[in-house]
Amino acid sequence: MNLHPRLACVALGAAVFLAALPPPAGARALRVVRAADYRRIVRVGDPAIAPDGRHVALVVTRVRWNADRRRRELISIDVATKAVKVLARGGDVSSPAYAPDGTQLAFLATRPHGRHDQVMVIPAGGGAIRAVTRAPAGVDAFAWRPDGRAFAYAAVDPRPHRTGAARFRNSFVFTTEPIVAHSKPRPDHLFVVGSGGGAATQLTFGPASALDFSWSPDGKRIALTLAPDAIANDSAYSHVALLDVASKRLRALTGRSMWEFDPTFSPDGSKIAYLYSDGDPQIAPTELYVTTPHGGPGTVLAPALDRPVGDAVWSHGGRSLIVTAPSGLTNALYRIALTGRVQRLGVGNVTPGIPLVTTGGAATPPLRGALANDGALAFSGSWTNRAPEAYVRLPDGTTRQLTSVNAALDRIAWGSATRIRFATTTGTRGDGVLYRPPGFVAGRRYPLVLYVHGGPGDPTQLSFDFWAQLMAARGWLVLRPNYRGSPNLGSVYQRAIFDDPDAGPGDDLMSALHVVEAQGIVDPARIAVCGWSYGGIMAAWMISKYHIWNSAVVGASVNDWIADYGTADDSLADRDLFPGSPFVGDNAAQWRAASAITYAADVTTPVLILSDVGDNRDPFATSSMYWRALRDNGKDATLRVWPIAGHFPDDPVRTADVYHYWIAYLAAHFTLGALRATGHVRAPAHGLP
Fold first, then answer.
1. Residue 585: enclosing H or E segment and its boundaries?
2. CATH number where 136 lies
3. More confident residue, 682 or 510
4. Is the pTM higher than 0.85?
5. Phi and psi at residue 521, to the nearest 5°
6. C-alpha atoms less than 13 angstroms from C-alpha of 512 in its C-beta half-sphere
7. Which residue, 279, 359, 447, 453, has fewest beta-carbon neighbours within 10 Å?
8. Is the peptide bond before 456 cis (omega within 30 degrees of 0)?
9. pLDDT(675) > 90
């Protein structure tokens, strides 16, 4: 659930585009991928480019498997020569940002023996690192003042020091926190501190939480997003405000009270761009607006783009903005002029953004700090058979790969990835990606895994999807469709999930499956469905309503919408999918009709249910309830959980562990399905992994 030149076309019943690139020159594919290769993947993220465009700084992250940790390095790359210099190691380095004059580089990291991130500064060419901030609870975000002599930063209020009996007086008024909350979250406030360090000055106060911010060119004002508090659910009630630094006075900028964020001053200070969604971003595309510091909502730029904008940055001259938006099977880059003219910026066969673990897509690439004065743009990117690397789009429009940190993986024979199209009842043709196993033979029938993306706002893209590739390496077809609610095909398709969170998307998934079946390459006795988050919701729905599945894996699913509404950290996102609260009038019937748990007695598919017990987004409670409902109805269901917090494990060992059990479960049932097809097994088998 929510919290954002192809090759030749061939006719196979639907428009299909081959999307596999050959290995680089000199590389020879030696073997198929193995699960252990996951720990070899190197992450590249947080790209920042120097104002003159000559160097790119980024964070490179490698797995330390036996410690179940990731080790980070901050590196600088010469764009012309690709020479690499390591600037900092360890300390969870992140968020590099060049000073306005390019002579220094700031980043977040923990001090030696420290516990919280602080702003650090190093000469851009390397040298001694000095700490700038000493925020008691750490720094969450920062920005150079345009003169380079100070920083604004966001930090949470430190917990009050209590002694004696006062330590145990910790009750609080509960509102829309997740049900497992033990305290009211503390807001982020803005502070300013000199670039040389010293005492910080607090700029904002009270319960409102500052989410993101931008300096005016003269350093006298800050545009920021304010939420009423630090509760995740209440971030929906965010609005753009303007802060006078000297007086610390705040005023609302547009008059709206919801779904505004990411304000940024134009280079001359006369305009402020910001993002606004006319409703929950699950169903309402986020659009780019431009207003002035005097106030008012301003003007929406390029409404005909019809894609949700993920990030935006002003060009150096202030006459246009560069934005990102999911479009088709990639994250597209666009230049939008103040006149509203839209120009798509090509980046070759690369999908910008860092691949997401469970969705088959890539996170929207951050643009702030990634655009040089001459228009060069730094970003991370990948392809279906090319692991992430750092790239730069040069001013002449060409794209250059800067790193080769994952070159060792080029010696693997990855499966090919194919674009599929399928009909829907929305008036929009859906799309998606079909992975074929290495050595695929046309006309042979293969097991198929319908692997559903989450979000629903995280569409499947032509990006590096390690776990889909690992499934394909077992000799399986892996189908990842973009069902309605996916934001990559326009607002009509995205909005079509409203009041129809399960049945409509289920029809789309079946339509995509039929397109592949029509190719004559699917073994009908070995078709599985699986997914995490909204993908888990859909997997549970599909085994409730369709009975063609050999097996299923349901991860972090909302199996009971009403229970989720009452316990999750994003209850507003639930309510916005339906016409109203389940506790008002007779609305509850509709919520129950959309819940997989209602149909537990109808399930005929063996199912593995996965969850983190500390998941606040799709709480473990609904997974436990679903397992109990299936068990009580005599169904073949197994519930496996991880005793950690979070919506999905963020450590490398547990991430691999989730997929170990996930893929093993499908593999065991595919083997059983093959034996049944030959008559060797007649009775159902329980207790599989």
1. none
2. 2.120.10.30
3. 510
4. yes
5. -120, 5
6. 30
7. 279
8. yes
9. no
Q: How would residue 22 be classed by pLDDT, with cut points 50, 70 and 90?
A: very low
Query: What CATH number is given to the structural domain containing 661?
Result: 3.40.50.1820
Distance of CA 557 to the CA centre of its chain: 17
201: in domain: yes
pLDDT at 272: 98
User: Among the three residues 279, 300, 321, which one is the final residue of a domain in this structure?
Assistant: 300
Residues 139 and 281 in one domain: yes
490 part of a folded domain: yes
Q: Are residues 150 and 272 in the same domain?
A: yes
416 with 294, same domain? no
Residue 59, classed as helix, strand or coil, is strand
Q: Which domain range does residue 222 map to?
A: 132-159+181-300
121 three-class SS: strand
CA angle at 672 for the pair 669 and 675, rounded to the nearest 5°: 155
Residue 88's Cβ-side half-sphere holds a number of Cα atoms within 13 Å equal to: 29
Rg (CA), the chain: 25
Q: CA torsion 453→457→461→465, rounded to 10°?
A: -40
pLDDT at 2 (0 to 100): 44
Q: How confident is the model at residue 689 (pLDDT cuts 50, 70, 90)?
A: low
Number of folded domains that form the chain? 2
Could you tell me if 296 and 416 lie in one domain?
no
Mean local confidence (pLDDT), 103-111: 95
Same domain, 533 and 668: yes
Two structure tokens written together for 162: 């209590």
Q: How many C-beta neighbours within 10 Å does residue 495 have?
A: 18
Mean pLDDT of 648-674: 95
On whether both 449 and 571 belong to a single domain, the answer is yes
**For residue 653, which of 71, 72, 68 has the smallest C-alpha distance?**
68
pLDDT digits (tens, 9 = 90+) for 151-207: 999 999 888 889 999 999 999 899 988 888 888 999 999 999 999 999 999 999 999
* 314 has a pLDDT exceeding 70: yes
396: Cβ contacts below 8 Å, ≥ 6 apart = none
Give residue 678's pLDDT.
77
User: Which residue among 300, 330, 365 closes a domain?
Assistant: 300
Could you give the CA distance from residue 573 to residue 76 in angstroms, rounded to a whole number?
A: 40
End-to-end CA distance of the chain: 27
* Residue 291 shares a structural domain with residue 417: no
Q: Is the peptide bond before 123 cis (omega within 30 degrees of 0)?
A: no
Write down the mean pLDDT value for the chain. Answer: 92
Contact assessment for residue 516 and residue 480, using Cβ atoms and an 8 Å cutoff: no
H helices, E strands: number in the chain: 9, 38
Q: Is residue 215 in a domain? A: yes
Flag whether 91 is in a domain.
no
Range name among 2-6, 270-274, 295-299, 568-572 with the lowest pLDDT average: 2-6
Say if CB 378 and CB 390 are below 8 A apart.
Answer: yes
Cα dihedral sign, 251-255-261-265: negative
Q: Cβ–Cβ contacts within 10 Å for residue 137, how many?
A: 15
